[in-house]
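I am still getting used to backbone structure tokens and would like to learn alongside you. Label the sequence line and the structure token line clearly, so we can match residues to local backbone shapes. Go ahead whenever you are ready, and we will take it from there:
>
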Amino acid sequence: MEIILMLIVAYLLGSIPSGVIIGKLFFHTDIRQAGSGNIGTTNTYRVLGPVAGTIVMVMDILKGTLAAAQPAIFHLPVNALLIGLAAILGHTFSIFIGFKGGKAVATSAGILLAYNWEFFLIASAIMFTLVYLTSMVSVASMASLTLVSLIAIFYYQDWILSIVAVVLTIFIFYRHRANIARIKAGTESLVHFGLGWRRYQAKQH
């Protein structure tokens, strides 16, 4: 019964549409109707600016962390990653916005933070480095999850972490299939910093 309750709470936490809430409360904008239409950090950053984007990123990370931290909070012998998966499901198929949602990259990071904070720091460093190098959050997200999976398998040798990481990598690639098509076509959006953005600007002049 405790596990079922934790899964329900995790799903509801994950379902909180941070980008929609911040957009409507403080900017009177529904980000689902602007930019890419996604409710996550990247589209919030693009539509509402870096402050709003950062707030949404932190909120999405924290809801994953809180969801996965439940076993530790309530002293129950359940793997945090397995409970955290319900938060990813909630973020992707939110009950509050018609079972639609984001791509769950930040929420996945939050779950990792609750499970292994050192690995979270490593994964975050990989992610931000790749964002800087490519200026494409989509590319950085997919590449980061791939590298995280390899580290989990070959360095940590934690089979639950490895399985969850591989499953999430496949899921993230699936959620980014439209981005992959745009990357192939050369039309994927860039964030306005990093080496990729500089190369793009240089070509325009």
About this structure: Residues 181 and 188 are 8 Å apart (CA to CA). The chain has a mean pLDDT of 94. The radius of gyration is 17 Å.
